[in-house]
Amino acid sequence: MTALTRLSLTDFRNYAGLTLRLDARPVCLYGSNGAGKTNLLEAVSQFGPGRGLRSAQLSEMTRRDAPGGWALAATLDDEQKISITLDTAGTAKRTVRIDGAPASPGDLAERIRIVWLTPAMDGVFRGGASDRRRFFDRLVMAHLPAHGKAAARYDKALAERNALIERGHVDPAWADAIEARLAEAGTEMAINRAIVLEALQIAIDARPEGHFPKADLTLEGAAEAAALKGEDFRTIFDLLVDAYHSGRRRDIGAGRTLSGPHRTDLAVIHRPTAAPAGEASTGQQKALLIGLVLASATALSAGGSGPSPLLLLDEAAAHLDPDRRAALFDELTVLGGQAWLTGTEAFLFEAFGDRAQRIRVDEGSATLAE
Ligand SMILES: Nc1ncnc2c1ncn2[C@@H]1O[C@H](COP(=O)(O)OP(=O)(O)O)[C@@H](O)[C@H]1O
Ligand SMILES: [Mg+2]
Fold first, then answer.
1. Ligand 1 close to Cβ of residue 65 (< 6 A)
2. Secretion signal: which residues (predicted)?
């Protein structure tokens, strides 16, 4: 069981100072709007890669009126206990320490994995391809932390190619060099995405029938399609190099790069109706998303290649009817990683019984309510 058994916040959002002592059971946070529930989930999400569940700047998360930056500390109880501290005071970066010793974000990614679902993701099936790509890439990063670095290399090369293209006059040797870097990072991204898509689909298919509908997932992108067919690195690399090369004239006309993994979409079919997820009802989409996130958590736990993920579910319980809520709690109770849930009222978590711990959140303070 992977769980946080202690969490301390200093000058983080509306918390001047708070320490929570927890056990491994799911954590239910309840309290009125604006109390600081999502802020607590955001604090937990800082222990994962990236900027956390609000994609906020480090400085935004510092408590207003606080003299310096924020700090977080947690005890992670897995096979063994480790302590993790994050500190931003006086720096523009998170400083990571594991058991007191300086550590890198990569070290952290080996110890703790986090998956989340927030109300901001509700429109993901109806929104644009970039929203779905970001949603999916975050799941890929939870499985394969190196995906983030490949994506960063890709974005850098893409910006260089776009700058070249905007000038309208492309030096072929220069473009060849940039496109080779783009194709190298793009191939790695496509392979990562294909690996995670397959693992996710297997986990979805193995899920119980019933409360959360199943999804059929496809990646719409030439490189990912090749990766899903099992093509090797070289073949996908060549495919991308050809696509960038032959697309130069078209891209100069458009003023930007029109093909490549930065355009890939995640197509999601709502299996019970065989229709695109974006056409399902709001409630069906929410249930589908919860199913996807649960499948992702199961796939991460099953992989055996790292710790089970903590699962952060912001305002998920309120949207479900009592039966579905109870079914969700049953699943969360047996996951390999601790779940964190928020809701405005304690009664939303009744069906957990004593299988969860409850915390009352109230304007920058939080107290265990048993
Ligand atoms: N940097 C900050 N410093 C102080 N308070 C903050 C900061 N950022 C957000 N807040 C406050 O946190 C509250 C929102 O907390 P949130 O966790 O989103 O509430 P909820 O319990 O509804 O999820 C708001 O009152 C907001 O003013
Ligand atoms: Mg909230």
1. no
2. none
